[in-house]
Amino acid sequence: MLAQPVPLPEIIAGPAVFAGDDACLTIGMLAALRGLASDRPLLVIDGANAFDPFLISDLARRSGAAPAELLERIYISRVFTCHQLEALLRDRLLAAVGRFHAGAVCFSGPLDPLLDEDVSVGEARRIFRLLPPVLRRLSTAGLVTVCACPPPVTMAGREELFPALCETARWVFTVERVAEHPARERAAGREEAEEGFAVERVAEHRAGGPSARARPAARSRPGGSHAIRITCVKPAPGEWVWEPRIGLIAPRRW
């Protein structure tokens, strides 16, 4: 995934949390894809309603992979309510892992359905308690397990959810976009990007819950590119920068 040398294992073992900028959704998914064996699919639990096939296709092209092959390796379950999340955590997700022989699971916005103002604090806490055991079970079974938590990660009465998720995780990263130096941006326009992540195939399939049609992502103007700073805060400090060299790195959320 990253062309820069990093002070981290090539594959992040154990549950990992990426949080911060919306770009954490993309970084988390790419971290999950990087850990996959060539013949195993990725399951995405999309609580943020942010899966962006156009962005993934752009990244695949930049890395020299065929977008269609990458997209055929991704199976998606859209989660719009806390009760859909509960149903997945209770039985549907583990059944889907076995059915599709998944090698990785990426929770995109796992806390989003629990931050709905129409969901009581008690109900949100009850459903959240199902999440840590599932993360541990997936990780123990050898699956790459990633949670990407875009803002906001909390609201009044639910302040303990995100810290509890980080406590469960073996790895915790913060993600932020940083503006590149103008000279670097001009140079970027004359160079071929090297993405550095290994990808192979993806198509949309639902492991449970209703579907939603993916919408095209907005493109930013030339010169508006950003580098991505990723900081490890657990288990040990570390920091590196990824320069994707595409106009958009964060998916649009609907």
Q: Name the helicity range.
A: 25-40%
Contiguous runs where pLDDT drops below 50 for at least 5 residues: 1-7, 185-224
Strand content: 15-25%
Please tell me the overall pLDDT: 78
Characterise this structure:
This protein is of the alpha/beta class. The protein has helices spanning 24-34, 53-62, 67-71, 82-100, 121-128, 131-140, 161-168, 182-188, and strands at residues 16-20, 42-46, 74-78, 104-108, 144-149, 171-179, 226-234, 238-242. The protein has a single domain (17-206, 224-242), classed as P-loop containing nucleotide triphosphate hydrolases (Rossmann fold, 3-Layer(aba) Sandwich), CATH 3.40.50.300. It is built from eight helices and eight strands, in the order E-H-E-H-H-E-H-E-H-H-E-H-E-H-E-E. Strand 7 (226-234) and strand 8 (238-242) form a beta hairpin. The two termini are 26 Å apart.
